[in-house]
Amino acid sequence: MAGRPRTITDEQLLAAVGSAVRAIGPIKLTMADVARTAGVSTGALVQRYGSKRGMLLAFLKAGSVGPGMRAAFEAAADPVDGIQAALAYGMAAADQSPDEFANSLAFLHLDLSDPEFREVLAGYQESQLADLRSYLVIAGVERAGLAEVLTALRHGTQIAWAISRDGVLLDALRANVETVLAPYRKKK
C-alpha cells in the first residue's frame, strides 16, 4: 500500500528547520517546533527524518552556498568586488538579530562536536576555499594563503559582531574585507 502523498517538499521543510533553529536554537528545538513552523504534523517529520538529529543533519547537508557564491562573484563588474560579494553571499545572520545569530552559533557547536556533522562542514569549507582561490586567480590577486585569510576574516567578523552587537553584520564584513582587498584594486 502506498503512503500518503507528500504535501510539502524537503526544501520547504528544511527552510522551516532553519527558521526554527534561528528562532529557538538547536538545543531547545523540538521536532514539534519545526512542525509548527512548517505547518505539518510532527509525525510527518519523524517519518521523513527519523529523529531530531536526522532532521538537523539533513538541514546541514542541504546547506551548500557554493552556486550562490559563484553567481555573486560573476555578477560583479569588478572581480575584486566579486570576491567581496562572494564572501558576503549566504552570510549566516546577514539579516538576523544578535540573538538569532547566537542560535546559529549554537548550531555550529553541534557541527563541531558531532563527527558526522563536522565531516559535512569540513567538506563545505574545502569547497568554498577552492572556489575562493579560483576567484582570486580570476581577479589576478592570488597569493598563498589569501583565501584562508579571507575565510578566517569572515568567521572572525561574525564572532566579533556577535560580541559587540554593533551595527549590521554584513556592513562589518564588507568593511573588513575591503581593508584586506583594497591594495589589490586596480588604480583607475
What does this structure look like?
With 188 residues, the protein is an all-alpha fold. It has two domains: 10-60, Orthogonal Bundle (Arc Repressor Mutant, subunit A), CATH 1.10.10; 64-184, Tetracycline Repressor, domain 2. It contains ten helices and no strands. It has helices spanning 10-24, 31-38, 42-49, 52-61, 66-75, 79-88, 98-113, 115-139, 146-164, 169-181. The longest helix has 25 residues, at 115-139. It starts with 9 loop residues before the first helix and ends in a 7-residue tail after the last helix. 24% of the residues are buried. The mean pLDDT is 87.
Question: Low-confidence spans: pLDDT under 50, at least 5 residues?
Answer: none
The 3D shape can be described as: elongated
Instruction: Determine the strand fraction and express it as a percent band.
Output: under 5%
How would a crystallographer describe the biggest sheet? Answer: none
Short overview:
The chain is mainly α and 188 residues long. The protein has helices at 10-24, 31-38, 42-49, 52-61, 66-75, 79-88, 98-113, 115-139, 146-164, 169-181. 71% of the residues lie in helices and 0% in strands.
